[in-house]
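Message: I would value a second opinion on how I read folds in token form. Give me a protein, with the fold worked out from its sequence. Write it directly below this note and I will take it from there.
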Amino acid sequence: MIRQWMVVLPILVTGFLLAGCVSSQNNVVDSNATPDINGVWQVLGSAHWNLEGQNAFKGPATNVLGALGGVPAGVSYVVGGLIPYKEEAVAQRDANRQEWNQLDPAVKCYIPGLPRQTYMPFPFHIVHSGNKVFIAYEFGSNSRIIHLDRPGTRAELPSWMGYSVGRWEGETLVVLVTDQVAETWFDASGNYHSDLLTVTERYTPLGKDHMKYEAVIDDPKVFTRPWTIEMNLYRRKGVDARILEYKCVEFAEDAVYGHLRKGAESVEPSVKNLF
């Protein structure tokens, strides 16, 4: 599996580089004049579990995995501490949270969308060349292209990763993400959005192997105002400077369709109720 992904990734990157070469020559970005953000990066922390932070608690797998199945404590990554939900949107958030281990799209191996794909507990690989920034994510083997030569454009149809248009502001890469489907969540705690979501990302180098990641979330259907998350990205070094294959579909099959499997009733309860 590892070998397969390491063969596929260079092919994808080569195609991406060729696409960048034939893009508009009037807006060519000199990648040598911008910060070197190429490499394998990862967020360290608990943002994937709950952007607002939480105390450690017993997870749905502790009856099988013991202490390893618990959900870790975490700090808030939301500037100001709390997400500014509209009063009528709180009920949906709470319903999501109550059944998170069954309803969270990521549990089913759906594409996490943005910004969540960035702070999943898996690394991602950034390749910047000319007018394009290609990002390959380990979780689900997902990917995206940030277009630096298409200001003001939108996608014809919404998608799970949306449509990304970027620009450089000094040493900061600013990316506007639009046209995402409404089915993704921000974390495993039921924090959600609608089809009106827009995300403005900012990648700012703070050192050779350290970047600040910010994302401004705007969705007038769900929130009273735009709100911001902040966290750090760290460049992997040495033998860890690679992404491996994590095609999660095969791991989600039992969680999603296990009850349909022949003989499912005979499965030991602690395993059957893992999700």
